[in-house]
Amino acid sequence: MKPFRTHRGRVAPLDRINVDTDQIIPKQFLKRIERTGFGQFLFYDWRFAADGKKNAGFVLDEPRYAGASILVAGKNFGCGSSREHAVWALADFGFRAVISSSFADIFANNSTKNGFLTVCLSEDEAAELMRRTREVNDYQLTVDLEQCEVRDDQGFRANFPVDEFVRHCLLNGLDDIGLTLQHEAEIAAYEALNPAPAVLL
Amino acid sequence: MPAKKTLFEKIWDAHLVAQPGGRSPIIYIDLHLVHEVTSPQAFDGLRAAGRKVRQPSRTVATVDHNIPTEPRGTPITDLIAAKQIAALQANCKEFGVRLFDMDSPDQGIVHVIGPELALTQPGMTIVCGDSHTSTHGAFGSLAFGIGTSEVEHVLATQCLAQQKPKTMKIEVRGILAEGVTAKDLALGIIGQLGTDGATGHVIEYAGEAVRALSLESRMTLCNMSIEAGARAGMVAPDETTFAYVQGKRFAPRDQEWEKAVEYWRSLPSQEGASFDKVVEMDAAQLCPFVTWGTNPGMVAPVTGRVPDVGSLKEAERRSTELALQYMGLEPGKRIEDIGIDRVFIGSCTNSRLEDLRAAARVAKGHHVSAKVRAMVVPGSQAVKRAAEHEGLHRIFLDAGFEWRESGCSMCLGMNPDILQPGERCASTSNRNFEGRQGRGGRTHLVSPMMAAAAAIAGHFTDIRDWKFR
After folding, report:
1. pLDDT, tens digit (0-9, with 9 covering 90-100), for B197-216
2. What residues does A12 pair with on adjacent strands?
3. Among residues B12, B179, B217, B326, which one has the fewest Cβ atoms lying within 10 Å of its Cβ?
4. Which of B149, B154, B312, B349 to mutate to test the interface with A (most CBs of A within 10 A)?
5. Running DSSP on this structure, what letter comes out for residue B28?
6. For residue A31, which residues of chain B lie inside 8 Å, CB to CB?
7. ipTM of model
8. What distance in Å separates the CA atoms of residue B433 and residue B450, rounded to the nearest whole number?
9. Residue A94 Cα distances to A9, A42, A71, A171, B92, angstroms
10. Is the overall model pTM greater than 0.95, yes or no?
11. Do A30 and B250 touch (CB under 8 A)?
12. Residue range B157-197, pLDDT digits in tens
């Protein structure tokens, strides 16, 4: 996994609440059996018309947000389906982090497995960043996982909570399967006490 | 005296494998259900790392999301879907995983076949790369959806590193009235809590109304926990649960059964155990609900109206305006005046025998409106056989419904069963997100009885006034 330490980049606003994973990556693109190449389908039904032509006015296609790598969005981002393809699509499109006042659990979990950061701020802080993203040209933020801090060049500064273990894995790009397998002895001991029922064998 | 434990805490503690300092606890997974859409990349990961499936016997796969509901044997014309199904077949073969394939008499929606084969049992930890895994909590198990990376993690280790969720009790007093179903209870709860009201929590549903529910209805209720943002939903096991499990294919037998039931009886939350959050509801306040918007929390009584946006806060107001625009609805419109084009009876929420019986009771002796196309998609081959044995298919066919093969079908429209742009559908599924059932399609979530009645009337209608024939 690609480590996440500190990232500075252009910010794009997605001023909607309850953005579900069906919008982030519609179901017609879930049939691929690879982890790559999903970025072109990000927010597909919002970005593209039924005939495949670009819809005018979708925020991520505005020139001022071109190349953005941080997304600011409304509350409850990533709700709905467990599809990890949503994170793969955001990351493949070029995003490294999403900032919101809340995230759906499975989306947040999936993010941590892909070196992708979900930054949870208070509603007021998230709203302030949404405003600045709109009002300041080429608005840039620094997301600093070492300090658990988001800051800009205009004096904004806010801390965000992260589970200590998740932070450790993200900072070091650790494969958590490998970490779990360090507990092989405990897993084997548990299995010895709790064998699979014979009927399943 | 040790702290009193909830159902969730008992199961969590019984599955703790390790609690390394400074790291997330590692819990053991009893049952891992696998389907074609969220697993190929996980198996690829295993191959790349040279890992095996640690417990093939605790891993069970089926095909459900992609498959057509045309008669079996019809070739799959969607080549990318066919490739994904072939990948699951090859992966199950290579890694020694049991697969209920397209031609299997046990094939079905993963959350329907787990319970009907008694792979799902009380006290278990169950995961699947699908958010509606919460369904299995109806048995008093801890069951939750995971992403593909975690699918790989469970395949490789039979464990998950998880932060311990918080607990929420939803206590429903009184008894649901005639015509008010578990689906309405679920929609009523989501309407009250919002789609993020239970984020970070495992819900335990309790109270007289929940205890009175059949096991299949409890599945409907737990299924939709994720739509309130919950990590999982659970109902404590009781005699209803044991009666449902007993005698099914993978259920314990003889002495093992006695031992199992004794353990299951020890699982319910202790009197006085504390929850992080408690919500109380009154069953008498519930009625048949219909969603009007683009998330399952946007819900109104069938006798109500599409809401006005005036009184809402800025973000909510904008979200509601966007939803109404997408849905092609005016504020203040009566729900019963909303006409429909399509009806879908199916999905892991409402495709079990009890659901089909309820819909058939409504449909019997009536005919689907001339302007409506209605389909019934049983949740599994076993449900389909049982329904046909009772003659339910005859009632549906005579009434003008299509009777199809089992799968996820139009719940998420990954197969050819989709809405056309602008089509409006009364659906017994779980999500009314934009484009969920097909780009531009407009989904209204309802119970099976309400869906059947809407198919016949051509618009939503209060099932409590229905003329059963």
Report:
1. 999 999 999 999 999 999 99
2. A71
3. B326
4. B149
5. E
6. 37, 66, 78, 80-81, 83-84, 414
7. 0.96
8. 20
9. 10, 11, 10, 19, 34
10. yes
11. no
12. 999 999 999 999 999 999 999 999 999 999 999 999 999 99
Question: Residue A198 domain-assigned?
Answer: no
Cβ burial of B2 (10 Å; 0-12, 13-18, 19+) is exposed
Instruction: Tell me if B132 sits within 8 A of B430, measured CB to CB.
Output: yes
- For B460, the token pair is 């939503």
Q: Which of B38, B54, B124, B148 to mutate to test the interface with A (most CBs of A within 10 A)?
A: B148
- Around Cβ B64, how many Cβ atoms within 10 Å? 29
Distance from CA of A187 to the nearest CA of B (A): 6
Q: What pLDDT band is residue B312 in, cutting at 50, 70 and 90? A: confident
State the pLDDT at residue B1: 65
- From chain B, the residues in CB contact with A102 under 8 A are 196, 199
**Gap from A147 CA to chain B (nearest CA, Å):** 18
Those residues whose C-beta lies under 8 Å from the C-beta of residue B93, and which sit 6 or more positions away, are: none
Closest CB to B87: pick one of A33, A82, A168. A33
Give the CATH number, domain containing residue A150: 3.20.19.10
Bridge partner residues of A13 (DSSP): A72
* Interface touch A109/B150, C-beta < 8 Å: yes
Task: Tell me how many domains chain A contains.
Answer: 1
Nearest CA in chain B to A23: B434
User: Does A25 contact B at CB distance below 8 Å?
Assistant: no
For residue range B52-102, what is the model confidence (pLDDT) as tens digits? Answer: 999 999 999 999 999 999 999 888 999 999 999 999 999 999 999 999 999
In a domain, A150, yes or no: yes
Strand partners, B281: B172
Domain that holds residue A121: 6-193
> What is the per-residue DSSP string for A69-105?
-EEEE-SSBTBS---THHHHHHHHHT--EEEES-B-H
Task: Give the pLDDT confidence score for residue A176 in this predicted structure.
Answer: 87
Does any domain span residue A58?
yes
**Distance (Å) from the C-alpha of residue B177 to the closest C-alpha of chain A?**
30
Q: Does A179 touch chain B (CB under 8 A)?
A: yes
**Would you say B234 and B221 are in contact if contact means Cβ atoms under 8 Å apart?**
no
DSSP B113-132: HHHHTT-S-TT-EEEESSGG
Q: Is residue A119 included in any domain, yes or no?
A: yes
Residues listed for chain B: 469
Contact B165, B234 (CB under 8 A): no
Window 101-120 of A, Cβ < 8 Å to B: 102-106, 109-110, 113-114
A16 touches chain B (CB under 8 A): yes
Model pLDDT for residues B353-397, shown as the tens digit of each residue: 999 999 999 999 999 999 999 999 999 999 999 999 999 999 999
Burial string for A83-107 (b: 16+ CB within 10 Å, else e) reads: bbbbbbbbbbbbbbbbbbbbbbbbb
pLDDT in tens, A69-113: 999 999 999 999 999 999 999 999 999 999 999 999 999 999 999
